[in-house]
Design goal:
Belongs to the PPR family. P subfamily. Keywords: Repeat. The protein contains 31 helices and two strands. By secondary structure, the chain is mainly α. Among the domains are: 88-187, Tetratricopeptide repeat domain (Serine Threonine Protein Phosphatase 5, Tetratricopeptide repeat, Alpha Horseshoe), CATH 1.25.40.10; 330-399, no CATH class. It has a two-stranded antiparallel sheet with strand order 1-2. Strand 1 (62-64) and strand 2 (70-72) form a beta hairpin. Helix 23 runs antiparallel to helix 24 and helix 24 (452-464) packs antiparallel against helix 25 (471-483).
């Protein structure tokens, strides 16, 4: 068979086809419904007239596929009407694009397989989107299969395609597979490829391996950028200290890569974490001489460190300095300061700062109000806490679940469980769904004031909402039932949680034993202790204290004292704890 080498004439034919393809794409984009088979026939007819006498036989020669890249196709026999074949390939790729755009990943995959089986070359753009889609839902193996199909079809994936798959593997924690993709790339990796891998290795604490990847990057003449060095400097600060990180900074500068504000922020954060706040402040002041102006994040790092070390006056001064230098504070800046003041009990200053926020163009958020509410609750100033909750809502800042959990905890501790239940019932209407800790707080509060029936109702409600009770939930109920003298019901709950694969802890066992001892059933309590040990749960000092007091409560004070002395001699109970038990006896 004589092979025809593509000539200028055949190249013009292909160009003509591609210009016509643009017209088809334009027609279909303008009015998809009108672009029916009649329109297609007209275009195909025009193409046939242009290419009437041409018959192509192609053998491992380079042709232009629908992905607009040169690709190699297997030897085929003489094909009459190759224009219509190319048009079918074009339409097939269009359909693939639509499927991917609509998020129909499985259908897209099936269509891709069908396309390649039929000899069509898929477009790399929708295939890259398909790889991204599978990676987003954690199906990295399927994403890899798409790449394999793409490569086997004769299409040439570009660096973006490989980067998407590598990123997918990195996000799912499959760094070894990401490195395998790097090894098999048919195109040269770029700086984005390496930065993605370096970030994952550094976040996983694999700095040594990351440095090997950096060496490999340099060997392949792919030069690190500011992001590359910043990733490595941050990891070095964490693993080897700021001293080693500074060496990387010097190397970075020597290679003509200029550090940016993010690089310096990483270093300042490292210096602060090493407890060298004064050095960090000096570094901050020197930044303009390095050709880089500090930003609000730089100042926030220093402010947080000042607050954590109790240097409030310095923090106030730094806030004034940053404003004077034209660096506007952010909501985060104010939240750092408000949180610190509230922890120190300086609520007046915290409120002043909160009220000043709008002056600096900052609108307080729930993280601005939450420390105040928590501080009021801690000081048992519930009226002030509720007052600021109302202020918060009136200003268009809606409380989050942390706000409500803080309030509910304080109400339950204060014995105002009815108010807590009322707020809990209103949460869904306020667009704030209760979480496990929300229910646990109220269930515990109800159990402590003898309202276990209502607590059990809440247990059923949380189950209906798809929330799984944990050991804290059951321990609260078991303790409440035992306190109310409903020890048999408490034991039933105890066995229920065992059936639910929730492992009881010492608190749960102690609650049952306390209930049994109060019911003058110390013998059963001792049996329960043996059961506790057989299940691998270690008794605590409280466990033995409950049993000794139970024995004494039944009129066996002498035996209780004898047991207490033996436990002290074995080192099971501290002398101070034993003395407290003796006083009670």
């Amino acid at each position: 068979m004589e092979l025809i080498v593509p000539t200028k004439q055949t190249h013009e034919g292909f160009c003509s086809f591609h210009s016509t393809r643009k017209e088809i794409a334009h027609l279909s984009g303008c009015n998809k419904r009108r672009f029916r088979s009649s329109s297609i026939k007209v275009v195909v007819g025009q193409l046939r007239k242009q290419r009437q006498s041409k018959v192509f036989a192609i053998s491992r020669s380079e042709t232009l596929g629908t992905n607009c890249r040169l690709s190699c196709v297997e030897k085929r026999p003489h094909v009459q009407g190759s224009i219509s074949e190319n048009f079918e390939e074009f339409e097939s790729n269009n359909y693939l694009r639509r499927l991917v755009r609509n998020g129909e990943l499985e259908e897209s995959f099936k269509h891709l397989e069908s396309m390649v089986y039929g000899g069509d070359i898929p477009d790399i753009i929708p295939c890259t989107s398909l790889i991204r889609g599978f990676c987003r839902i954690g199906q990295t193996k399927k994403a890899t299969r798409v790449l394999e199909i793409l490569e086997d079809s004769g299409a040439v994936p570009d660096v973006i395609t490989y980067n998407v798959l590598i990123s997918g593997y990195c996000k799912s924690g499959e760094i070894d597979n990401a490195l395998k993709v790097l090894d098999r790339m048919s195109v040269a990796p770029d700086v984005v490829t390496y930065n993605t891998i370096l970030r994952t290795l550094c976040d996983s604490g694999k700095l040594k391996q990351a440095m090997h990847v950096l060496d490999r990057m340099l060997q392949r003449e792919c030069y690190p950028d500011v992001i590359t060095y910043t990733i490595l400097i941050e990891a070095t600060c964490k693993e080897s200290g700021v001293g080693q990180a500074m060496k990387l900074l010097d190397e970075m500068r020597s290679k003509g890569c200029i550090p940016d504000v993010v690089t310096y922020n990483v270093l300042i954060n490292g210096i602060c974490k090493e407890g060298r706040l004064n050095e960090a402040i000096k570094f901050l002041n020197n930044m303009p001489s390095y050709g880089c102006q500090p930003n609000v994040i730089t100042h926030n790092i220093i402010l947080r460190s000042m607050c954590s070390t109790g240097r409030w006056m310095d923090a106030e001064k730094l806030l004034a300095d940053m404003v004077r230098k034209g660096c506007s504070p952010s909501v985060v800046t104010f939240n750092i300061l408000i949180n610190f003041l509230c922890r120190k009990g300086l609520l007046g200053r915290a409120i002043d700062l909160l009220e000043k926020m709008p002056k600096y163009g900052c609108t307080p958020n729930s993280l601005s109000y939450n420390p105040l509410l928590h501080a009021f609750c801690k000081e048992k100033k519930m009226d002030r806490a509720i007052e600021y909750l109302e202020v918060m809502v009136s200003r268009g800042c809606y409380p989050d679940i942390v706000t409500y959990n803080t309030l509910l905890t304080a109400l339950c501790k204060d014995g105002k469980v009815d108010v807590a239940v009322e707020i809990l019932n209103q949460l869904s209407d306020k667009g704030c769904s209760p979480v496990l800790i929300t229910y646990n707080t109220v269930i515990d509060g109800l159990s402590k004031v003898g309202k276990t029936e209502l607590a059990i109702e809440l247990l059923n409600e949380m189950r209906e909402k798809g929330l799984q009770p944990d050991i804290i939930t059951y321990s609260s109920l078991v303790s409440g039932l035992s306190r109310e003298g409903k020890v048999d019901e408490a034991i039933k709950f105890f066995h229920d949680l065992e059936g639910l694969d929730v492992r009881p802890n010492a608190i749960t066992y102690n609650a049952i034993m306390l209930g049994l001892c109060k019911a003058r059933q110390t013998d059963r309590a001792i049996d329960f202790l043996a059961y506790m040990i057989s299940k691998g749960c270690k008794p605590t000092e409280s466990t033995y204290t409950i049993l000794i007091e139970g024995i004494a409560y039944e009129g066996l004070a002498e035996e209780a004292l004898e047991l207490l002395n033996e436990l002290c001699s074995r080192g099971v109970m501290k002398k101070s704890s034993a003395e407290q038990v003796v006083v009670k006896m």
